[in-house]
Amino acid sequence: MEGLAVRLAERSRLGDLDLDRAVFGEIFSDHMFSMAWRDGAWRDPEIVPYGPIPIEPGAMTLHYAQMAFEGLKAFVGVDGRVRLFRPDRNARRLRLSCRRMCIPEIDEDDFVAAVTRLVDIDRLWISDRPGHGLYIRPIVFSAEAHLEVRPSRSYRFIVMTCPVGAYFTSGDAGLSLKVEDRFARTAPHGGVGETKTSANYATTFAAGRQAREDGFDQVLWLDGSQHRYVEEAGLMNVFFKLGERVVTPELNGAILPGVTRESVIALLADRGIAVEEREVAIDEVVAACDDGALEEAFVTGTAAVVLPVGRLSFKGRDLIPLLAGAAPLARSLHDELTGIQYGRIEDRHGWNRPVDV
Fold first, then answer.
1. pLDDT grade, residue 325 (50/70/90)?
2. CA gap 142, 60 in Å, rounded
3. Which three-class secondary structure state does DSSP give residue 282?
């Protein structure tokens, strides 16, 4: 990236890291990337020590949630090389999220260059333990101090990273999902469900907290108008194996186009398994469970990768996929995808981006 300034931390906090006690998203690496939008252009790209940033109480993002963010990972491969997984897809999705939120778009090449340089500087924060990696959180938000309801005139783009292990620890039982038929995650038509913005996440807290209090890992969301069609599982995309078919809710504007979702569909195609992207009614899932056709259910996401679902609860009734314990398709997809990410399996699609700066 042209004009990128780098100021390194005087003391690394890496020595304070205890991977055995690390909680997902709680400990941040030594540095962050920052860039500002003003006078009609993105300016002053820099990598600086991670730390607090000044923000005015009147900053429009605090009042009107004009922001967008992303999530991707870097891995240390079995050959010792650091790899980013499909950063170009996250760059594209952030650009589209910015467009929807009336935020100046960030050039995709600049996004990848910023992430690559930051990861290279903090590469020692990436654990080579199985299942571990470096989670990368880019975020762009309105910075102008103004209370008029309109798009901001100034913005800040920041990229931070944190070392992570497994997001869920459900073990062999798989995830348990409570089907949510009261709250809505997003508006069904014309909303921002396909956009990675804070407005899509705060609305999930109440139902998610209740589900955990009821003993479940996450919520299975239904559509916001009829509470009839499956949308997402928590903040993840969801798949069902119905006999020889694999189905997943179509990208209808209310569902986030997951990078892992897209990757899993490609891996299934490599195996000759076509995925039906269409409306999936919860009644169809119930009926498939009743007649034994629901062999597996699984979720996909950057943090979770691919995880089997061991149990769904709908209106007080437990729905158990036929192969919930073994989940051979979900587990083989997880192994194949992580094998590509860690360099154990040939990257035949060219998804990995080596970090060699």
1. confident
2. 6
3. helix
Tell me the three state secondary structure of residue 193.
Answer: coil
The CA distance from 187 to 162, in Å, is 32
Residue 312 β-bridge partners: 177, 319
Nearest-10 Cα torsion for 184, 188, 190, 195: 60
Task: Give residue 167's pLDDT.
Answer: 67
d(CA 299, CA 234) in angstroms, rounded, equals 9
Radius of gyration of the chain (CA): 21
Q: Are 168 and 217 in contact (CB under 8 A)?
A: yes
DSSP-H helix ranges across 52-133: 60-64, 87-100, 108-121
Q: How many CB atoms lie within 10 A of CB 33?
A: 26
Global pTM value: 0.95
Instruction: Kindly tell me the number of DSSP H helices and DSSP E strands found in the chain.
Output: 8, 18
| Alpha carbon distance 96, 190 (integer Å) | 15
